[in-house]
């Protein structure tokens, strides 16, 4: 504040975001927004230029927020608000060191992401993309007793790796399909798992006993590459593998081997490494692998609410007040 007049703070936004978020920022009258006005990612050089002297940064999960970005921003930086629940794209140690607060968007995307996970699981297990292609290319010759058969949830065992907010929402939705046993693994047993009759088991037990293995954990040093050759070799060869968390939890070469050798039945992925997955990637040659372009939270309503929440997190960080969703780390 100079002469009693409050200085307008500077904010950089790394992409076009839903207007619900932009409106909150413009109406607040506390910051001057500069925006990478595109649906495509900001080039690294533009990001480094854009954050210069910024008090606030609103970013996406596709922006790598590392030491270089923090240094480029400089000492003004008070807050980073990410339009995501995941925060593996940010160098948290470096952010903490600099006393920068972080906002994120948990809860508001839980239902949309759980819904997408169920959709992907059913599409993968019942081979929907293959069926759609056959109808269009004339492969549908007649009703055949053994054609396009897959796997059903009724009487099955489902294993959820990471029974957090989203994992629990997935479990709640899957149970009514007639799931017999709901296993989960993670760092700790959860008391709320009782609602879905969840059994806390060692990862090995989950992997070897489940008909559906659903990955819903955060990407951390502990979960990076968790689903590897050893993991897939313990799965049933009739089992379905689903990942809607982060691509790097999976060793994709090992997954390719498991799918192409018949070690496991099929896989549905909403997340990959890298993103986008190159169109000539081996996984995309497999009929038993369904890959989606990271659309877990992609409903109009959810994305609008995420934009609102990330704008309000940013404003609170600028003004030094309580954030609606502050990441405590
Ligand atoms: O992957 C999406 C998110 O982290 O919000």
TrEMBL record:
Chain ranges of the D-isomer specific 2-hydroxyacid dehydrogenase NAD-binding domain: 118-296
This protein's UniProt keywords: Oxidoreductase
PROSITE patterns reported in the protein's UniProt record: D_2_HYDROXYACID_DH_3
GO MF term list: glyoxylate reductase (NADPH) activity; hydroxypyruvate reductase (NADH) activity; NAD binding
Segments forming domain D-isomer specific 2-hydroxyacid dehydrogenase catalytic: 11-326
InterPro entries membership: D-isomer_2-hydroxyacid_DH, D-isomer_2_OHA_DH_cat_dom, D-isomer_DH_CS, D-isomer_DH_NAD-bd, NAD(P)-bd_dom_sf
Domain of life of the organism encoding this protein: Eukaryota
GO (cellular component) term, any one: cytosol
Gene3D superfamilies for the chain: NAD(P)-binding Rossmann-like Domain (3.40.50.720)
UniProt-listed CDD domains: GDH (cd05301)
Protein name: Glyoxylate reductase/hydroxypyruvate reductase
